[in-house]
């Protein structure tokens, strides 16, 4: 059981080490409301007023809705 716990801890630590800005916003709470941040990722869903943006490693907490207003021109698959 101890080996399993250590293995899971190592996996979670590796995932957190590779996490980006979106993960920090969603999970770690590293930014405050009103902070300006630059995010990079893949557009998963595009709507008339914004996009759902994903960043690697594409897990829980690695996606965020970005409001852009109308006429933004992004389509799914854009970086």
Strand order of the largest sheet: 1-2-3
The residue fraction in helices comes out at: 25-40%
Q: First CA to last CA: what distance?
A: 42 Å
**Rg over CA atoms:** 15 Å
DSSP E strands, number: 3
Main structural class: alpha+beta
Would you tell me the overall average pLDDT? Answer: 79
The helix-strand sequence is HHEEE
Largest sheet: 3 strands, antiparallel
> Which segments are poorly predicted (pLDDT under 50) over 5 or more consecutive residues?
1-17
DSSP strand content = 15-25%
**Shape call:** globular
Please tally the helical runs, counting DSSP H or I stretches of 4 or more residues: 2
Task: Using brief descriptors, characterize the structure shown.
79 residues, alpha+beta, three-stranded antiparallel sheet, 2 helices, 3 strands, globular, disordered N terminus
Give an account of the 3D structure:
- The chain is an alpha+beta fold and about 80 residues long.
- The protein contains two helices and three strands, in the order ααβββ.
- β1 (about 40-45) and β2 (about 50-55) form a beta hairpin.
- The longest helix is centred in the first third of the chain and has 16 residues, at about 1-15.
